[in-house]
Automatic annotation (TrEMBL):
PANTHER family: 2-DEHYDROPANTOATE 2-REDUCTASE, PROBABLE 2-DEHYDROPANTOATE 2-REDUCTASE. GO terms for molecular function: 2-dehydropantoate 2-reductase activity. Keywords: NADP, Oxidoreductase, Pantothenate biosynthesis. This is 2-dehydropantoate 2-reductase. Residues 185-324 form the Ketopantoate reductase C-terminal domain. Residues 3-151 form the Ketopantoate reductase N-terminal domain.
Length: 341
């Protein structure tokens, strides 16, 4: 398979590195990482080993690939940068057979369909995580899951999806094919936003959040609010492995749901994933622009539109927005100055 990955951040580089062992992979991005990748390869650090991958070509000028054809485009850029990437790749989109986006939020799907067409768009969600070390290596932080679905199912597209699922499974990324392309991305949004509601205010990793009965209650309340918002938009959520929105909000008592979250915390500890955080809290710690408006903010605004009472989502949205406004626009280092972190 010939694969084009848009985004030279940690997750894009992780996918590029692993897929490059059996496939031809090219990375497109605007960052300084392009030259770094071409000169040094991609070093991936896992709890078990460190390996350097040198089979990936990176570039920042789409004209370099204008005559090439790709079986798959994977988009892994920050949500607020999507338009810039699609604009840059517009002239070659006819050379792409299928495309998917592992970005956060739900607007990514509309943007993907507008770019590539519904017949070529693959709905997807991903909980695999990666971050950079201070020396430019990629640290594989979260061995999660991938979910895929089709907006328009044909025999060729269904066969491609099966092959793609196996391709991800071959690099130890467990992948499930779902029937509902809309519910799939909403499930991820609701679960991610509950994590952001707690993680961005406490700046704690998941295993500590899910080890606290009080913080589990806040997480579950945010999850329930997200479910109500989804239903107000006509979306039917369902359980996906690792993202058990329905079980945690409707099928189990609060004590039972808390016990499930405690179990998730123990699994993270056992696997050595003590530093696993929701990505927005990492952005806050690094005083970077977050994806607030594409995730938790998406739920907040839809809740307001539908006149729903969502105290956890409402409060956490405004606090996170306030923090971001302060460190981006007014007092750059206040988190450190006042010893908040």
């Amino acid at each position: 398979m010939k694969i084009l990955i848009a985004g030279t951040g940690a997750l894009g580089m992780l996918f590029a590195a692993y897929l490059s062992e059996k496939h031809e992979v090219q990375l497109f991005g605007f960052s300084k990482n392009v030259d770094f990748i071409n000169n040094n390869g991609i070093k991936v650090i896992t709890p078990q080993s460190t390996k350097n991958y040198k089979n990936v070509r990176a570039f920042s000028d789409p004209k370099l690939i204008k005559n090439e054809k790709f079986d798959l485009l994977i988009v892994v850029v920050k949500s607020f940068s999507t338009k810039d990437y699609y604009d840059a790749l517009g002239e070659i989109k006819s050379n792409i057979s299928y495309a998917l986006s592992f970005q956060n939020g739900i607007k990514k799907e509309e943007e993907l369909i507008n770019f590539i067409g519904k017949d070529k768009a693959i709905s997807s969600a991903c909980t695999i995580g990666a971050t950079f070390t201070d020396k430019g290596a990629v640290k594989y932080t979260s061995p999660g899951f991938i979910w895929l679905s089709l907006y328009e199912k044909t025999n060729p597209s269904a066969k491609f999806l099966e092959n793609l699922s196996q391709t991800f499974a071959n690099i130890n990324f467990p992948t499930n094919i779902e029937n509902d392309p809309y519910g799939l991305v909403w499930n991820k949004l609701v679960f991610y936003s509950a994590g952001a509601a707690v993680g961005c205010l406490t700046l704690l990793p998941y295993h500590m959040i899910w080890n606290s009965k009080s913080l589990c209650k806040v997480f579950l309340d945010a999850l329930k609010e997200g479910k109500v918002i989804a239903e107000s938009e006509g979306v039917k959520l369902f359980d996906m492995k690792g993202l058990e929105v329905i079980s945690l909000t409707t099928m189990l008592s609060e004590d039972e749901a808390t016990e499930i979250l405690n179990g998730k915390a123990k699994q993270l500890e056992t696997r050595g994933l003590r530093d696993l955080r929701v990505s927005m809290s990492v952005d806050i710690l690094r005083q970077k622009k977050t994806e607030l408006e594409f995730t938790l903010g998406e739920l907040y605004h839809r809740g307001v539109k539908n006149k729903l009472i969502t105290p956890v989502i409402h409060t956490s949205y405004h606090i996170i927005k306030g923090l971001e406004e302060l460190y981006l626009n007014k007092e750059r280092n206040f988190l450190y100055k006042y010893r908040l972190i």
